[in-house]
Amino acid sequence: MSQSPAHASDDEALASSSGPPCIALDAFGSDQCPGPEVDGAVAAAKAGIHVILVGDRTKIEAELSRHAGWDGLPVAIHHASEVITMEDSPAKAVRSRPDASMPVCFDLVRKGQAHAALSAGNSGAMLACGLFKYKRIKGVDRPALVTSLPTREGWVSLLDVGANVDCRPVNLVQFAVMGAVYAGFKHGVATPRVGLLSNGSEQTKGTELTRTVHGLLAEATLEGLEYVGYVEGTDTMSGEVDVVVTDGFTGNVALKIAEATGRLIGHWLKGALRGGPRRALGGLILRPAFAELRQRLDPEAYGAAPLLGVDGLAFICHGGSSGFAIATALEFATRSVDEALTPRITKALAVHADLLAAAKRAEPARS
Amino acid sequence: MSQSPAHASDDEALASSSGPPCIALDAFGSDQCPGPEVDGAVAAAKAGIHVILVGDRTKIEAELSRHAGWDGLPVAIHHASEVITMEDSPAKAVRSRPDASMPVCFDLVRKGQAHAALSAGNSGAMLACGLFKYKRIKGVDRPALVTSLPTREGWVSLLDVGANVDCRPVNLVQFAVMGAVYAGFKHGVATPRVGLLSNGSEQTKGTELTRTVHGLLAEATLEGLEYVGYVEGTDTMSGEVDVVVTDGFTGNVALKIAEATGRLIGHWLKGALRGGPRRALGGLILRPAFAELRQRLDPEAYGAAPLLGVDGLAFICHGGSSGFAIATALEFATRSVDEALTPRITKALAVHADLLAAAKRAEPARS
Fold first, then answer.
1. Which of A94, A228, B101, B103 is such that its CA lies 20 to 30 A from the CA of A163?
2. How far is A349 from A171, CA to CA, in rounded Å?
3. What pLDDT is recorded for position B102?
4. What's the rounded mean pLDDT across residues B173-179?
């Protein structure tokens, strides 16, 4: 397998089950690939993180050559001849192109040569890779993509944001359990407050799906999380809940509407500072304040979305990720290996086995 | 019916089918009722709009007495002894309390004593009143609530934002036709571009429901609107579409997430100006710019959401509406009477009768 030329580190030597965590990074995922991936890998490696860049060796080396002294860093290359694009049909692409950079990342994890897979590419294909290569954790029907949105003082973890558009009650119950583990892990919340996204806070609101899930969660004995009932869109970022659970269609819309609103306000704010010299002066004085605000609004700063519910670590970055975003994601992936994110989720699901069994028996929601 | 004391105008005299449009305003809808309703009615009446305040006569008169000279304005009182609250179960409340201020507004329209009903109260009860009292327009399965969100340079009309959580294909097709009429009416768009909200722009994305609707709209011959396909949350406020169609669950979440994001950014912006004297100075200089921004972000400024698809005019305001918001809504309701919003919708639905019949035959989406 090792096709490394003399100056590239050997990925087999880099990663071993006893050594430090090593992340398999799909170098051909992002919109501007492989530039951001290589920049991110180098930046992370300088901080001691071990990375295997997966993809076309020649192109990766060309990018790496722009970074003086990279060959002294814990960065390796693993050649993969093909790529999966944003336009590809996920499951078909993963099946027909086993040598593409994305599925090869998962293979490296399966073989014990890496400990987590990371890509800024096609999220549907990432889901397919997770299902085909890692398999599901016992008790999980469908994995979920989770991301964290800012609140006034902290964060709220939202799931599913796109892995499953048509959900059954058992899926949302599993999302609640997994989301709570994630909020505890990512943001250090002791007993996460979990809400169910709805169109109103009254119990009569919601769809057949949400009402079924509400009944299950409200009556269950929960460990390590508190179910607080329905939350409206308005309350999602108020700081009153740590986790918001919804189906992947609604969650994806919610996430993207929040992004769109942030962008729109940023655009208006810029425009408001262009109304003459007085405003330009104000803008100049407030430049540091606006820079802070921009950073808070930047979806990239929110890092990688892990795929929860598969038996292995996989992280999906924004297609428009910068090198900085990739480096941040690599750092988070490393922490997830070190602090055993997957085993924690497996354990929480086992603890709630009775609830999950009841949820599986619950009538699927008709719409 | 007239129980007016000497100083209150007579609502029968105020409204007649040949006279100017007259709006029946539920005085007991908003969170702070009846203050904002009375303030709004007086402000609108000063601009020549005819209003009947519906609700407890004594309480309305007490509020009106704070406005010197109100009895010279085109404002009348129609007594209604009961109220419907936000906590009430909509259909049950409307059936069991026929004398509540909200349903009485619809009765006044039915009897020809007013031309539109307006309330800042329980939106589910407004929907129930619309269905029970006005009935549906021919060809309409379920009415929809529509609201407009700001874009970079203009507006986008979003529907349904809460009337129907569980939708079938025919509902979304009707929303597309009605939404286009509304965007033309409200924002003067000649041939509105209509998009279908989804979790991705590719045709393979979406739910069974959206894929069915996409197939119907993409193949139909449409008049007065252009169907542009799937739009993601990110594109909703980009200005590339004039109408975004979705089910009432997703639409409600989308609307409230946009509001929540706006509020969160406003909160951060305030905080950013509190970091010492330099920032305070910048904030002072930019006060007019921030005031402009606040106005753009203010959901109240976006006015009343009409209930489309019932055979009569009904407008729902935000529960937290101020007098200014109520006055703006009264003005818009009056224009809707003058410029025949309901007949325009009836006509557009008739023009698309074949499409609606095909949509009715389409398989309901399973989830």
1. A228
2. 12
3. 97
4. 97
Burial of A208 (0-12, 13-18, 19+ CB in 10 A): middle
CB contact under 8 A, B281 and A285: yes
Q: Residue A289 and residue B272: Cβ atoms within 8 Å?
A: yes
pLDDT at residue A291 is higher than 70:
yes
Bridge partners, residue B317, by sequence: none
User: Which pLDDT belongs to residue B104?
Assistant: 98
pLDDT at residue A5, rounded to an integer: 38
To the nearest whole angstrom, how far is the Cα of A244 from the nearest Cα of chain B? 12
The phi and psi torsions of A231 (rounded to 5 degrees) equal -125, 145
Helix/strand/coil for B218: helix
**For B285, nearest residue in chain A (alpha carbons):** A282
Secondary structure (H, E, C), chain A: CCCCCCCCECHHHHCCCCCCCEEEEECCCCCCCCHHHHHHHHHHHHCCCEEEEEECHHHHHHHHCCCCCHHHCCEEEEECCECCCCCCCHHHHHHHCCCEHHHHHHHHHHCCCCCEEEECCCHHHHHHHHHHHHCECCCCCCCEEEEEEECCCCEEEEECCCCCCCCCHHHHHHHHHHHHHHHHHHHCCCCCEEEEECCCCCCCCCCHHHHHHHHHHHHCCCCCCEEEEEECHHHHCCCCCCEEECCHHHHHHHHHHHHHHHHHHHHHHHHHCCCCHHHHHHHHHCHHHHHHHHHHHCHHHHCCEEEECECCCEEECCCCCCHHHHHHHHHHHHHHHHCCHHHHHHHHHHHCHHHHHHHHHCCCCCC
Is the ipTM higher than 0.85? The answer is: yes
Q: Give residue A194's Cα distance to chain centre.
A: 19
Q: Pairing relation of β-strands A305-308 and A243-245?
A: unpaired
User: pLDDT tens digit string along A41-96?
Assistant: 999 999 999 999 999 999 999 999 999 999 899 999 999 999 999 888 888 999 99
Contact check, Cβ <8 Å, A253/B233? yes
* Rounded-to-integer distance, Cα B329 and Cα B313, Å: 12
- What confidence tens digit (pLDDT) does each residue in B127-161 have? 999 999 999 998 898 999 999 999 988 899 999 99
Q: Is the peptide bond before B34 cis (omega within 30 degrees of 0)?
A: yes
Is A185 in contact with A148 (CB distance < 8 Å)? no
Residue A16 has pLDDT above 70, yes or no: no
User: Per-residue pLDDT averaged across A273-277, rounded?
Assistant: 82
Question: How far is C-alpha A290 from the chain's CA centre?
Answer: 27
Whether residue A315 contacts residue A118, with contact meaning beta carbons closer than 8 Å, is answered with yes
What pLDDT is attached to residue B11? 58
Chain-chain contact of B273 with A289 (C-beta, under 8 angstroms): yes
Contact A23, A49 (CB under 8 A): yes
pTM comes to 0.89
Q: Parallel, antiparallel, or unpaired for β A155-159 and A144-150? A: antiparallel
Please state which of the ranges A196-210, A283-297, B129-143, B343-357 shows the lowest mean pLDDT.
A283-297
In chain B, the residue whose alpha carbon lies closest to the alpha carbon of A209 is B367
Question: Which residue in chain B is spatially nearest to A90 when comparing CA positions?
Answer: B204
A–B interface: beta-carbon pairs under 8 A:
190
Q: Compute the C-alpha angle A293/A296/A299, nearest 5°.
A: 130
